[in-house]
Write a structure and sequence with these properties.
Layout: H1 2-14, H2 27-35, E1 39-43, H3 52-55, E2 63-67, H4 71-79, E3 83-85, E4 97-100, H5 104-116, E5 121-124, H6 135-151, E6 154-156, E7 162-164, E8 181-188, H7 191-203, E9 208-213, H8 222-230, E10 237-242, H9 248-258, E11 264-268, H10 273-282, H11 290-300, E12 303-305, H12 308-320, E13 329-332, H13 336-348, H14 358-365, H15 389-398, E14 404-410, H16 411-416, H17 419-436, E15 440-445, H18 453-466, E16 470-471, H19 474-494
Parallel strand pairs: 1-2, 1-4, 2-3, 4-5, 5-6, 8-9, 8-10, 10-11, 11-12, 13-14, 14-15, 15-16
Antiparallel strand pairs: 7-9
Helix pairs in contact: 1-9, 1-11, 5-6, 7-12, 8-9, 9-11, 12-19, 13-19, 15-17, 17-18
């Protein structure tokens, strides 16, 4: 562990730092304007792109202007009811935020116009910079970085999708739900992953506070965003996809400041040789050693995710489960073989599936029918014991050997019989959770997930209404619960 720690510190020391001009204003104030602008300018919207960046602003509550010089494109902009000007300087009021959708060869000139207009923050969708590896592209990126740092202009990007703020109707993609507002903030170097993480979290009934895709991060980088959301009272959870911070030391320091206050889930891109090569051509980042990254994340108290699914599962567990440092699982549902598999899954994740107390077992024995069933942990209720389900759940929930409750939901069984039986059982579980204060989760089990998709969706929505997180299988549930328990132990130790 000492060797890994030493490597971690050395890695942080030798990474290049991002130089800032003394003219650079308060980045958090500039981000406030970027996320909640009153006036936005979209530069370069085209008919060929179906005016996507203007259409993304359909629900924006502020004022939108267009800047376009091509007469063939201006006609469609005017038809949309949006005022168009042929230069940024012609816009008749102050602009808080600008979106650049112009070719790289024009970007520096347009950026200078934005500087003259005193626009504090620009989002550069424009790509083809250092990530391409071309000498001229690298020079062009250096040029826009120099313009930004000398002027104090904050660049989001280049090569990114920008910001999503449902509260003010700011989108960077058509599928983003401006009605589903919550307390999760997402930071991502990848635009596609920013979209996917937003869709996954909102699709699970969780509201988004803000999402930002920051691409190459030549001015605005991940440590800035950790600092911003760490100080944002509306953010309760930060979920991020990171390929490589420019300043490793500052990233670690900001991460270490935030995690005792609010959880940070980090999905690292570039964990293999092939992934490292892809990172270099995607955002021009240095992916670094995955071993050092993992050590840094662990030391800072963040939660590591290795996929979109793991990031989503950890986020759901953090937001829905009552905080606990206990690791003993009490599980209802499943045949003998399923019980064995679930016990293996939770044990591999570092959790326990303990035997219930003798007092609980004695109480169970007074009424439990053992034909085709079992009241050891995991419990297989069986058809003959459903009349006593409330008593069974209550005994399990009140057992001192149990810290966390889990209900295995058989989607096939729910599809075959009335789904109301399962919904009633979920309500009983939620009642025990509220009485005992113990965390509660649901686990789906089906060999035919596509066939059972409709019933799973209905049950998942019912669980969301009850505040019960659900997971597609025991392995994913076990990993998510284990990560969350470790986080709460870390938080308890440092606060």
């Amino acid at each position: 562990m000492v060797i890994v720690y030493t490597k971690c510190i050395r890695y942080l020391l030798i990474r290049p730092s991002l130089q800032r001009s003394e003219k650079m204003p308060n980045i958090n104030e500039q981000l406030d304007k970027a996320f909640s602008p009153k006036v936005v300018a979209v530069i370069g919207a085209r008919r060929a792109d179906d005016y996507v960046w203007l259409k993304n602003m359909t629900d924006f509550k502020g004022k939108v202007y267009s800047v376009q010089v091509a007469d063939s494109d201006i006609e469609g902009i005017v038809e949309m009811g949006i005022e168009n000007y042929k230069s940024i300087g012609e816009i008749p009021e102050d602009v808080d935020y600008a979106v650049f959708a112009v070719p790289r060869r024009f970007a520096a000139s347009v950026l200078r116009d934005a500087v003259d207009k005193k626009i504090p923050t620009v989002h550069m969708f424009t790509s083809g910079y250092a990530e391409s590896g071309e000498e001229q592209a690298i020079k062009d990126q250096d040029e826009i970085q120099q313009i930004a740092t000398e002027s104090g202009t904050l660049i989001i990007g280049p090569n990114c999708m920008g910001v999503f703020n449902p509260e003010v109707g700011m989108r960077f993609g058509p599928g983003q739900d401006v009605e589903n507002i919550g307390n999760v903030s997402i930071i991502s170097q990848s635009g596609a992953h920013a979209s996917s993480m937003t869709a996954a979290i909102q699709g699970n009934g969780i509201g988004i506070n803000r999402t930002i895709s920051f691409g190459n991060g030549i001015v605005l980088d991940s440590p800035d965003l950790l600092n911003y959301f760490g100080n944002d009272p509306k953010t309760k959870l930060i979920c991020g996809y990171i390929e490589g911070p420019k300043n490793g030391r500052r990233f670690f320091e900001e991460l270490r400041k935030v995690t005792p206050i609010k959880p940070v889930v980090l999905w690292k891109g570039g964990q293999t040789d092939a992934g490292v090569r892809s990172v270099a051509s995607h955002t021009g980042s240095l992916a670094g050693s995955v071993e050092v990254w993992n050590a840094m994340v662990q030391q800072a108290g963040a939660i590591r995710a290795d996929s979109l699914e793991e990031a989503l599962d950890a986020s759901k567990a953090l937001l829905y489960l009552t905080p606990t440092t206990g690791e003993n699982m009490g599980i209802i549902g499943g045949s003998g073989g399923q019980s064995v598999s679930m016990s293996d899954d939770f044990s591999r994740a570092g959790l326990n599936v303990p035997r219930l107390t003798e007092s609980t077992l004695e109480s169970m024995s007074e009424f439990f029918q053992l034909v085709g069933a079992s009241y050891f942990n995991p419990l297989d209720v069986g058809g003959m014991n459903r009349g006593n389900i409330e008593n069974i759940i209550s005994l399990l929930g009140n057992d001192p050997n149990i810290d966390i409750l889990a209900l295995m939901v058989g989607a096939q069984a729910a599809r075959r019989r009335s789904i109301d039986d399962t919904l009633e059982q979920l309500e009983l579980y939620a009642k025990v959770r509220d009485e005992t204060g113990k965390p509660l989760l649901g686990i789906f089990w089906t060999p035919t997930p596509y066939k059972d998709s409709e019933v799973i969706l209905e049950l998942d929505k019912a669980m969301q209404d009850l505040g019960i997180p659900s997971f597609p299988n025991p392995e994913r549930a076990a990993k998510a619960v284990s990560k969350v328990v470790k986080y709460h132990r870390f938080k308890q130790a440092v606060t």
